[in-house]
């Protein structure tokens, strides 16, 4: 029996993460030996977001509340990694995995942790070049002005060292802004 057929039978013909039945395919959970036990059956949406973490949509992955409890180790490992990437430590802390499964899940996090995901006050992912709107008057220390609520900051940059800040120009001055005071424009 082919791996895809085996995964289709195991999943009941739906995505093992979100339950969708659209565009299903096999995704190996690295490091993998290519077997069905180390692969999952996922929809196109889940696969695209797993392969491109900067496009990850947290609302789509609300389904992880269910899939994190899967008895299939590969599904639990992928749920663990996605919850970590989304910063959902509250759900990660609730998960129980055998030691070997947890070490497998941790083994795939080293490269994923390098991609810092920056979110605005509403949880929307921010990328370099985006525009944001300030949602609260902010005193800018050392510059002698207040960044007013409603000001649009265009063409932001994402600093590599800080996960909850962006860099942009307000009143011609380049400043760091905390993401909790911003929303994507």
From TrEMBL:
Highest taxon listed in the record's lineage: Bacteria
InterPro entries, alphabetized: PhnaA_N_proteobac, YjdM_C
Record-given protein name: PhnA domain protein
Sequence ranges assigned to domain PhnA protein N-terminal proteobacterial in this UniProt record: 6-51
């Amino acid at each position: 029996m082919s791996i895809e057929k085996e995964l289709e039978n195991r999943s009941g013909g739906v995505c093992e993460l979100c339950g969708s039945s659209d565009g299903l395919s096999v995704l190996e959970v690295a490091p993998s030996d290519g077997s069905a036990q180390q692969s999952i059956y996922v929809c196109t949406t889940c696969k695209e977001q797993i392969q491109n973490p900067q496009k990850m949509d947290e609302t789509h992955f609300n389904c992880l509340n269910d899939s994190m409890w899967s008895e299939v180790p590969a599904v639990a490992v992928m749920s663990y990694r996605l919850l970590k990437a989304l910063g959902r430590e509250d759900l990660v802390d609730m998960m129980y995995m055998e030691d070997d499964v947890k070490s497998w899940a941790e083994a795939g996090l080293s490269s994923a942790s390098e991609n810092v995901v920056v979110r605005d006050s509403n949880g929307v992912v921010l990328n370099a070049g985006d525009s944001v709107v300030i949602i609260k008057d902010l005193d800018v220390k050392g510059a002698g002005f207040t960044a007013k609520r409603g000001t649009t900051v265009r063409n932001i940059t994402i600093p590599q060292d800080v996960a909850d800040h962006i860099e942009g120009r307000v009143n011609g001055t380049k400043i760091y802004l905390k993401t909790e005071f911003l929303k994507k424009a």
